[in-house]
From TrEMBL:
Highest taxon of the lineage: Eukaryota
Organism name: Ichthyophthirius multifiliis
Any matching Pfam family: Nop16
InterPro entries: Ribosome_biogenesis_Nop16
The protein's name in its UniProt record: Nucleolar protein 16
Length: 112
């Protein structure tokens, strides 16, 4: 395959073979700095990006964490293997995050 930049340079110099003109799809070269400027101009401000708040947990996830805690306490390695208890198929780290979110919300597990 022919290099686009090489073809453009040959076209500007007037040395391009007429058969090779079909391989040129763009009119001019685009520098990486031009692309960076365009991306920076179109970038949204950081405050417009919304992220999930730390410690959010849904009702279904609360129920699942309570079930996991009743059987395995905080041994998430064993809970990860038990697919009857781990209904959401969470990994160990996901279970830790959900458990911490539950503790942040209610202070203890299970809530009373």
């Amino acid at each position: 395959m022919l290099d686009q930049n090489m073809l453009l340079k040959q076209k500007k110099a007037g040395k391009l073979n007429p058969l090779q003109e079909q391989f040129i799809e763009i009119d001019e070269e685009i520098d990486l700095s031009d692309i960076k400027k365009i991306l920076e101009n179109n970038k949204l401000p950081d405050e417009q990006y919304t992220k999930q708040k730390q410690g959010q947990i849904t009702i279904d996830e609360e129920w699942a964490i309570e079930k996991i805690y009743k059987k395995y306490k905080t041994n998430f390695q064993k809970a990860y293997i038990d697919h009857k208890v781990n209904t959401f198929m969470w990994t160990e780290s996901q279970m830790k995050k959900k458990y911490n979110a539950y503790i942040e919300k209610y202070g203890q597990c299970p809530k009373n």
